[in-house]
Specification:
Elements (H helix, E strand, L loop, with lengths): L3 E8 L3 H7 L14 E4 L10 H15 L15 E5 L7 E7 L5
Antiparallel strand pairs: 1-2, 1-4, 3-4
Length: 103
């Protein structure tokens, strides 16, 4: 299986929606732009948010197994995917990239 590099590309915070709909919570998201994780054997990397992992795990598995070309040419690099977590208040966008080193 290939390693899959997971890079935090964008962290968004919809304060207006949070104020209107969300109950106050502490430490909802620790992701920082530029943060990098590596999935080995399609397993969840240490420190990866469970909810974010649920959103991306099928894509990571496909890339780790050598697949790609999601949605018939969606990404310029067919061995990558741009996935967001499912938090509607503070979505985080992740770039997933299969390794080139044959691992």
């Amino acid at each position: 299986m290939k390693k899959v590099k997971i890079t935090v590309k964008k962290v968004i915070c919809h304060k207006d929606l949070m104020e209107e709909y969300e109950n106050p919570i502490t430490n909802a998201c620790d992701m920082k732009e530029g943060q990098v994780f590596v999935s080995i054997d399609a397993t969840k990397p240490d420190g990866m948010c469970d909810s974010a992992w649920q959103s991306m795990s099928a894509f990571v598995m496909t890339l780790a197994c050598g697949g790609g070309n999601f949605y018939d040419g969606w990404m310029k690099n067919s061995r990558s995917a741009m996935i967001s977590c499912n938090d509607g208040f503070r979505p985080v966008s992740f770039l997933l990239e299969a390794s080139d080193d044959g691992e």
